[in-house]
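Researcher: We're teaching a course module on how sequence relates to structure. For the next exercise, students receive a sequence and then see the predicted structure as tokens, so they can try to spot secondary structure elements on their own. Here is the exercise chain.
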Amino acid sequence: MRAHVRVSSAARRDTRNIGLMHAQAVAVTRTGRNRAHDGLLLLACAVVFAHALYFNHTCDDAYISFRYAYNWAHGHGLVFNRGGFTMGYSNPLWVLLLGLGERLSVPSPVSARLLGALFTFATLGILSLHLRRHCDRALPAFVALFTIACSGVVALWMFGGLEGPLLTFLLARAVLLAIDLPAAAPRRAWLELGACLGLASLTRPEAILYVAPTCAYLGLRSTERARPTSIALILATALSFYVGLTLWQLAYYGDPLPNTYYAKHLPLTGELLGRGMQLTLQYLEAYYWLPLLVCLGFILGRQRLGAKRGTLPLSVIACFFAFYLSIGGDALVYYRMWHVTLPMVALLAAEIIERLQEAAPPRAFAVTALALVLVGGNVPASFRGWNIEYLRSDDYHLRKLQHVAAYMRTLPKDTRIAANVIGILTYGSDLHMVDMLGLTDRHIAKAPGKQVGTPAHESHDARYVLEQKPDLIIPGFPALLSAAAEAMPAPMYPADRDLYARPELRRDYESGYLQICNHGALPVFVRKTYMGLLSEKCDDGAGG
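Model: And here is the predicted structure for the students to work with:
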């Protein structure tokens, strides 16, 4: 009996030793895996930062948000022109963050870049944490992180000045929370998910649409279905942000939606849908159709490979695509609006690679090659085609506009200017601006006569513009020419064509060119009663 006891004790000691050795091996493996994930994350952050520096672009539209933030921080209210209450921005949370930076004496062009980098790195960080919890191998994490880091969309808009990085982070955070949320999670977890979606809707109002696929996923998922009360909590929390913002907009500006909505809105027609589809095809072609192939690969392989986590990201992409078509797309360079879909595509690609690794270990080379293709397909799109050529030309003209804004800052403070491109000119000159495209003007935004054309460039009302008696009118895209030409530039937008057709223009204005020091000549129309003041200014040597 004692011998039996001694043997049993030895066996127990052996069992404990084996268990300890196993635990140590697991800990070593987990540590090695975490180090691999950390290395990939740091490398991805370095790549996307270098990629963003390659573009080094801040768009003119961002300066509209900068103008609102500056005025708010300096006590003039959330307005574009002081005294005029029109909501010419659709990113209130972003403007608020920029305004806080202005109050801390950090100019908006600087804080926008810092925030863009911060939220881009944060998106990569939460994706890395999610994948290290779910994937034993590093290849899926490599695919996800570098699909984003190598994307021209992410890289350009990291420093682009608009809200894309913030919106993408909030939506990615909400999706990852929903994927990992157990049905028995405490109330604060459901509140956090609803708050993420609500904050996303404060960043862009259309983000409230993503509440529907998120709640549908939680209520219908095959593993643990959320209770109706939990889904109701998400809905109530998210909608409270959206409804609160809507009520505030109505009280402060007199409209329930941003003025940019009215400036861009067109009836839903086949022509509008066709434009949205055309812009979608341009985006897919620029990226070798890889985003579409990833979505189709997930759908076709879902049952065979057992892929499940990607159901919600795929639903978010579908929701975005439906919205994008309904507005007829967006024309800002490097496909700005597609920014929010990239973490979703990255999650789908990572899950495909993960399931392929589990299903076909002997084909490791083929899976690795597929992973490299998914990542590498993002790189050439940043360095080829009309986009980069257009971007360099745009950067050149925007740098020239900085000189125009500096010149205008020397004009009398009551000078009024009308233009199509208003961001840098208004932020840099601090003068009153009549926005001929209506983004920051309620009357023009709601004026009739819009037809499907270039997105956000359809609104116009030249009669109203001339009634505002602007001292200078800058037609078309304000480009500095090397020398004054014999004729004014041809009209570019409906606002220009409408303007050129008005008899009041020929009656009250003289066409000519402002010589902006040694930087070039700017085509303008000058109000005849303002000609004397402008001549005096030109005599001072600042322009002519």
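Model: If you want an answer key for the exercise: The beta strands are 416-419, 432-435, 472-474, 509-515, 521-527. The first strand starts at residue 416 and ends at 419.
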